[in-house]
Amino acid sequence: MKRTEQVLWVLFWFTIGIKMTTSKYGFFPFTAGMILSSFYFYLSFWLFNNISFTGIFKKENYVGITSMRIIGTIAIGFGYSTAVMSILFKIMSWPGSLIMLIQACFGLVVSAIVILVRQSRKGNNPFYIGLLWRNVLMIAICGILIGIYALPAEQQTKIFHNHIRP
User: What is the rounded (10 degree) CA torsion for 124, 128, 130, 131?
Assistant: First the structure.
């Protein structure tokens, strides 16, 4: 994980914690979630392929990286972006969060299977191990949030500290 990704995740969870404990307003989690989601959506090829930020447009930084690997990291970035947005939708209790969580989980499970197959062919490659750990973590978070849907609405309101207006 690059430092930028770590900082964005800490910021995202911190703002979610503030929203769930003290504030009924969701501006801060929304902003942090949008930044993190956009980060994965637009810069996944840079993040996962260990390319320096200043060298994104330099051809020599892509030597040894296959086009399938770049396409794969872009697809995984789309999946992570969807997962972050679905987490945000569930935390904010917005409509459509369940279908987004299911879609994100499905995409992450498919990508985890592809990563496992690629890792079995390539051996213990740190690139695939890092992606696999991210996938497992995202699948677990999405799975927990899908499981929360089984709870009654009153329990969900208590968990997410959402104030229902009359």
Answer: -160
Decide if 92 contacts 32 (C-beta within 8 A).
no
Q: Do you know the residue count of the chain?
A: 166
Tokens of 83: 């997962």
- pLDDT tens digits in sequence order for the chain, 166 residues long: 678 888 999 999 998 888 877 766 778 888 999 999 999 999 888 888 877 777 777 877 778 788 888 888 899 999 999 999 999 998 888 888 899 999 999 999 999 999 999 888 878 888 888 889 999 999 999 999 998 888 887 777 777 765 544 4
Phi, psi of 18 (to 5 degrees): -65, -45
Instruction: Provide the CA 30 distance to its chain's centre, in angstroms.
Output: 14
Calpha distance 142→21 (Å, rounded): 21
Q: Token digits for 155?
A: 């329990």
- Distance, CA of 28 to CA of 161 (rounded, Å): 15
Contact 77, 119 (CB under 8 A): no
> What is the domain partition of the chain in residue ranges?
3-160
